[in-house]
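User: Hi! I'm working on a homework problem where we have to compare a predicted structure to a textbook description. Could you give me the structure for the chain below?
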Amino acid sequence: MLRLFHGKYHDRFKKMRMDEARLVLKEYGNLYLNVAFSRMVTLPEINANAKIIAVDVNENVIVYGSDDFVERFETNEEIIRTRYFLKRRKIQVKVRGKEPRARLLGKYDEREWRRVREIYYLVAREIISKALEIGATVIVMDDLEIHKRDLCSEELNGRIHRWSYRRFQRILEYQAKLHELNVKYIDPAYTSKTCPVCGDELDLSLNGRRLMKCQKCCLRRTGI
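Assistant: Happy to help. Predicted structure tokens:
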């Protein structure tokens, strides 16, 4: 006799169309029915009066807000990624045998992604909830493109390589469209050099720590 398990949030799929279904055998001999659902979503038009929430994704912090508020969510992703990286390094050194090593590495890879994914979904829910609360219809994110060769150290290269900001953006975009919210990506080039108050270019030559000052409105800002 087979026992089929379903997620506790399956009720939300009642109004969706079922597309593809397949049985999947997972650990401990449990058999799962994976079903893909779809539905048509109508996104509102973007106009000059649309309320916007901007989302800034960093390695350990995700900040979102508008002209009226700013919220900060600490993900600590760097700490999580680094811990699992060190665990995998130990396994590669101490565990003998290709198959046992691959099995352990796969297990820790899955645990790492599960922890990070839970954080991503939690942040995405908070952002969507705030957007619906204030009546925002557009979520804006940077169209990030980071290349390892552009970075200055091997350690930083490794950290950025382990950072999965694109996955968070895809999760947030998917959740946003389910709630009929638009998602826009913007080119972040030179945005840190632009004064957020008057739009003039910030002077980056004050000191080596990137303390910037606007020559027009005298705003001071520390670069990231």
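For your comparison, note the following. The chain has a mean pLDDT of 78. The first strand starts at residue 4 and ends at 5. Good luck with the assignment!
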